[in-house]
Amino acid sequence: EDQVTQSPEALRLQEGESSSLNCSYTVSGLRGLFWYRQDPGKGPEFLFTLYSAGEEKEKERLKATLTKKESFLHITAPKPEDSATYLCAVQWNGGYNKLIFGAGTRLAVHP
Amino acid sequence: EAQVTQNPRYLITVTGKKLTVTCSQNMNHEYMSWYRQDPGLGLRQIYYSMNVEVTDKGDVPEGYKVSRKEKRNFPLILESPSPNQTSLYFCASSSPIQGSEQYFGPGTRLTVT
User: Which among A104, A109, B21, B86 would be 20 to 30 A from B35, CA to CA?
Assistant: First the structure.
């Protein structure tokens, strides 16, 4: 069964304490892996798309990487405003535009 | 501004009273989709549409209907809502090119009593 698993479920960091979030997937024929940020009560906001193993993308304090079976979202020197739930989703060959989402990682960054 | 809008944002209703949640996008996207989000379960797809008059079931379609008569609009219909449909609902749209990101609406929080 196609599946996306994110870990940890929740993460508490001190401001400036770097860390990584993990997303592992079991779909075959990956077309794209997506990272979204979701603030409480709001819709997911697009961050990155990764298409092939070895690819990396960066935006401010966030860096996403992709291997054949997992992706990491690295957060460098986080600030309280980075607190949010981070969602990972995948598209695969034959799935058209369908996204399968992981359950998300709730990140809290404290001053 | 490119956006997906949903109405209403909040809705409390009673079991069995038909309701419609509207979704509209201004990006001329062919693909639109409805998701529900429940704690611990993540986002699950209810229905999707690849273009006008073309719709199909997602992973959790029971109890829902959709229609796509215009490219910009994709309403979600609950003919006879039940308490297990209490959830946070999101509409999304994207271009038909696989690998394109989906743009999400602000969400509709539905409570069925």
Answer: A109
